[in-house]
């Protein structure tokens, strides 16, 4: 993607559909007058009085305990410098988003319009009663040091300047691991630190706490090496002043083992890297652009262990790995501070986790075949679900042991489970899909590429490397629209089935179609005519191996697109029914709902087939299916033809697929409430399990439910995903959004990848 389109994409992302990245959502009922009288006057007076009696009750009756303030004055925003409070807001909202998705912590971002230390401290102190913790962000040194020190002294909630300690924790964990790989010891290595600001000073202090020796450290600021003979050094810089005869970064890099960059972009040259010691460790952490570009560094030295602060390269050493989990642990024991013991515990938890086998889900999410501890994987990935289970307990334990926890945890297993539960409602699955598609992009025909939204989706998948789009439709319109969205330079195949330019292709497909259907009343002439229809043409492209998958249906009703797919592509071997599933991103995690689009009143046998196909689809997403066959009856509580049909389907599945975790017939609330199910029906295969797949007794119930969830809960939905066709063909909902089309394209690509794998295995 060009720099210009990345810029445009970032601006549109922030502006549309609503400006900004976070919002406030009520957590209590507000449907009736009664609810409102509890939420506000008169009911609200009761918790006020309780808190008035005992201030600690504020944790019991308000959001304080899970609410963190991300506060900045905009004086050191990423590596962009002093751009002021308003311009810092996107970053602070971004931190809020990360706190929420990684650790389920709510955030108010607060941008303060002052560079005066006393005024800033006063502001934070005055608003502190609202919050369970204070995350100071992007405040420049040396002011940041005093601000944090005084707030820590004066407040009884955890205060952490993330650029200092978040960064220090992550980079220390990465450094310990990199040193292990380079077979060097922290006590002996020569370290060059570029930057002497908030992040650099705190990182270096923490490396010292782990054994780095001051005489081995050279630190530089914007004026060059920090030497003892320089005037007007701040006390923090003076801590690292050297009396060695080194004046420039070039000189400092000679024979250095480690380079730590927390300064600004592009100040390290390949020549400098060449003078470093064998197996050099280079952490170029300036954001958004590192001190030396990742690829340039790798091209310069093949023995390098390289990390940046960016998410688009291996080894992202960025405080995003720290602040969500450190605050989670601190809030959960109501720590009054984030102290050295808690920081050290986080470092150890992170560095140990990188050496553990990586769950398949993480490999899939990052499009990797097998992440293992090594030069390209020295620190866990932010989307690793183990982070929330490992880091907060380590931090919480350290808080308890060091005497700063006001609410110690007693049941650690229960705590760990509650942490995992917090990860239910995000959209990691979508990221997982896109990354997986990117590992082996396939040719996807977009049968309605002359529709703007379809074309926009094709542009995204092309630029992101998710798929190789083939654009079908009126060529003139497609070219015009491509210009409009600055997609005209893309190297993509455009085909107009109605144009004479395509006559040889059309003849080939017409001939193949005629041979298939000549005994069903299709003449050569009618076969030629039908190939002018885009969905037939697209299906033939897939049939004839000229494309790997197809996407259609944006502008036509579902049944009218299903028909040519069934007629031309047909069902897979052994398949007696096609069906669809929708994946809903719900509070409890992704849920598969089947069949949402095809089978009006499936028989018991059909239901069993739908369940089998849905199980396979769930596995394609890296999810082990736990399936409930639902009804309005529980295990025979209502006995009639309809409930018996579901029971028969379950019996059939238990016979044919004994390993499948499936049971029923069950009412939906029992299916979704594992405790209720365990209490009343302990014999069920699903008792104590978290159901993630619901097979509905008929189309009405499935379709109504998924649309209800989508509209009322605003649950994101992927699908309907077509199951059972002989080749990958996926049908969009009428008027699908660009995101939905992109997601369906990723599904189509993964579908094609899976089939290829199966073919190769045979
Ligand atoms: N990857 C990550 O997780 C994180 C990365 N960072 C990045 O680190 C950088 C610094 O952030 P932060 O410490 O908060 O900001 P500060 O403003 O506190 O510090 C910036 C430091 O960089 C120094 N500097 C500027 N230009 C040069 C240069 N050419 N050579 C050497 N040093 C230079 C400044 O020198 P002087 O003192 O003379 O002004 C100052 O010491 C930013 O790019 C930021 O994005 C920060 C936090 C986390
Ligand atoms: C990551 C971060 O906090 C920074 O670059 O400032
Ligand atoms: Mg920052």
Task: Describe what this molecule looks like in 3D.
It is built from 31 helices and 21 strands. The chain has 762 residues and is of the alpha/beta class. The strands form 4 sheets. It has a 6-stranded mixed beta sheet with strand order 7-6-5-8-9-10, with helices on both faces. Strands 18-17-19-16-15-20 form a 6-stranded mixed beta sheet, with helices on both faces. It is globular. The two termini are 38 Å apart. Residues 76, 78-79, 140-141, 163, 167, 194-200, 220-223, 262-264, 267, 285-287, 309, 317-319 line the site of NADPH dihydro-nicotinamide-adenine-dinucleotide phosphate (NDP).
Question: Care to give the gist of this entry?
Answer:
This protein is α/β, with parallel strands linked by helices. The protein contains 31 helices and 21 strands. The structure holds NADPH dihydro-nicotinamide-adenine-dinucleotide phosphate, pyruvic acid (PYR) and magnesium ion.
